[in-house]
Amino acid sequence: MNVVEEKVFVGQRVRLDYSKWVNCVFKECEIITMIGDFDLIGCDFVDCKLTLKRGALTIAKLVHIFFPDKSPFIFPEGDPGPLADKDLTLGEGM
To answer: Considering 12, 39, 59, 61, which has the largest number of Cβ atoms within 10 A of its Cβ?
Structure first.
């Protein structure tokens, strides 16, 4: 597993998968995971957007089914998610 320590990312697209992130700061970034195989230790996120794809999106849908009032997920364009009548917003200020 790749280890990234004490880095600051501003306005970038960052894929978290296959890495361990230690004491990093992400500002105004698009944070992407496709499989959810990563570690976050002491990281800060400021005004970031989370993008879930593939397996990570599938797990998010499952979490939303089990915890609909506690999961603030957005699903891809055209996919209303498992509970289409709910407002599922995640983004700014993550």
So the answer is: 61
Burial 29-65 (b: 16+ CB within 10 A, else e): bebbbbeeebeeeebebeebbbbbeeebbeebbeebe
- For the entire predicted model, the pTM comes to 0.72
Q: Which two tokens stand for residue 54?
A: 């593939």
**How far, in whole angstroms, is CA 48 from its chain's centroid?**
9
Helix (H) or strand (E) holding 33: strand 30-33
Token pair in block for residue 36: 């959810």
- Where do we find the tokens 């978290």? 16
What are the backbone dihedrals phi and psi of residue 8, each rounded to the nearest 5 degrees, phi first? -115, 130
Residues 42-86 pLDDT 10s: 999 999 999 989 999 888 888 878 877 776 655 555 555 554 444
Sheet containing 25-27, strands listed edge to edge, beginning at the edge strand earlier in sequence: 8-10, 25-27, 44-46
